[in-house]
Amino acid sequence: MDSGELKTRVGSLTLANQLTFLRLVAVPFFILAVLEARFGLALGIFIAAGVTDLLDGFIARVFRQRTALGAYLDPAADKLLLMSGFILLTRYPNLFQGIPMTCRIPVGLTILVISRDVLIVVIAMLLYLAYGQKRFQPSIWGKITTGTELVTVGLILLFNHLRRPHPIVDVAIRATLAAILFSGFHYLWRTVRQVRESGPDRAAP
User: Fold this and answer.
1) Where are the domains of the chain?
2) What's the whole-model pTM score?
């Protein structure tokens, strides 16, 4: 490895990227905390991860530390933590029954959350393969959906820690369900429109 390549790689490890790596490192500790029913600790890790997400975005914008590495790592770290929360906190027929929880996520909602994310990845891959489109911009509805998912996981962790149910959890679950369905159909509609506007002449070779 020459000095120029080393400098390029080290340069990618900006402060913003280091905060993103910190979120990735936090994921297994979050999983262990939930599996051990230490919901207060899991909530603290979840909130701290959210704070680092805000910080690395702020630092990347203000200090112009946006990198290709960060563009991939940042959403990956967010999704890993969020998906871990949904998978572990779901009400399954037989799985994770040994973890004492007052509140759980309906299994149907978790299936929709995962299916929507898989759908987005598949659409992005198809647009890249067919039209050479390298960036798949998230819509405002996608951001709203992610926000409702974060709130839902946070509330369930909180009331599991307090060991009591609360009506606001059901409200958050319904809001997340509505946002997932709407944003999923919106992504499909937007993809169909992009394909029609691109046309066969603009297909990637």
Assistant:
1) 1-88, 95-205
2) 0.82
